[in-house]
Amino acid sequence: MLELNRITAGYDRRDPVVREVSLHVGAGEAVGLLGPSGCGKSTLAKVAALLHRPDAGTMTLDGTVIRGWRHRAPREQRTAVGVVFQQPRLSADPRLSLRELIAQPLRSTGRRRDVPERVAELAPLVGLSDELLERRPHAVSDGQLQRACLARALVLRPRLLICDEMTAMLDASTTAALVAVVERYRAESGAALLAVGHDRVLLERWCDRTVRWDERDTEKTPAAIAGVND
């Protein structure tokens, strides 16, 4: 489903965050990417989500070589990937209600007719009541907002879901609930998963396979990814 080959990426070409990293996720497979904060795993996740163009390397999504990122990527590629970020308040428009937040991808892709049905399907799945759907982000907890962000990531029925530290700010019960939602969706759709995090126990229990980001030293030298378990 996803192949990243010798990816180099960052925000300064002279000092990239990610250097020549390769990773693959098979169709329907759940892969955990384990690494410490600041190692570059979130940058790699943004490349995989078509949100950040790499400086070098190649990416293949569902058998097609990626030529463009962000708005330059074809719609069918952008909508094939759903993303949930670590900090929901930085990824949610504070002006929108949770209902509008979930519906946002449908509206932006011209699928307004699907809004009532999909929101009605997803809200109970992620644990949001009708009353919560009418609230804006400032009026809900981090956990409730992350539930809405997960629903937003699923609303277009992606074939690949990327969870970048999705549960890092959540308590144990909310973490378990959201992981269960992801796994139910995967079981029903056959979607693949790339789960990024630093909680080894969670990733190894959640995913089919976990890979570890090994920093060779404390400087920004080329990083290698090594297998943890199969």
Protein model, in words:
Helix content is about 35%, strand content about 25%. The model is unreliable at about 215-225 and about 225-230 (pLDDT under 50). The strands form 2 sheets. The protein has a 6-stranded mixed beta sheet with strand order 6-7-8-3-9-10, with helices on both faces. A 4-stranded antiparallel beta sheet has the order 2-1-4-5. By secondary structure, the chain is of the alpha/beta class.
Summarize the structure.
The chain has helices at about 40-50, 75-80, 90, 100-110, 115-125, 130-135, 140-155, 170-190, 200-205; strands at about 1-10, 20-25, 30-35, 55-60, 65, 80-85, 160-165, 190-195, 210-215, 225-230. With about 230 residues, the protein is an alpha/beta fold.
What attributes does this structure have?
Oligopeptide/dipeptide ABC transporter; disordered C terminus; ABC_transp_ATP-bind; six-stranded mixed beta sheet; ATP hydrolysis activity; AAA+_ATPase; about 230 residues; 10 strands; alpha/beta
